[in-house]
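To illustrate the input format used throughout this study, we show a single complete record. The first block contains the structure-token representation of the backbone; no residue identities are included at this stage. The design step must infer an amino acid for every position from geometry alone.
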């Protein structure tokens, strides 16, 4: 779960979840298939990410 008490704790939990997903996909032998299905391509022996469609940033003012 990546829901935590603080933003920093949530980032750490999300990072752990992503790393565990990648490790599991590697162990199952499906990582390459997942990367291809999500738009990554292998170029000169390195995986290249797809173009970003959008980047969203959110802010909230709390108890000022």
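Output of the design step:
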């Amino acid at each position: 779960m990546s829901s935590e008490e603080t933003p920093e704790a949530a980032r750490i939990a999300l990072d752990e979840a992503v790393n565990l997903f990648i490790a599991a996909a590697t162990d199952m032998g499906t990582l390459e298939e997942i990367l291809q299905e999500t738009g990554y391509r292998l170029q000169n022996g390195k995986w290249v990410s797809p173009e970003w469609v959008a980047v969203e940033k959110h802010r909230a003012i709390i108890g000022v």
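Structural context for interpreting the output: The chain has one domain: 1-64. Residues 57 and 64 are 20 Å apart (CA to CA).
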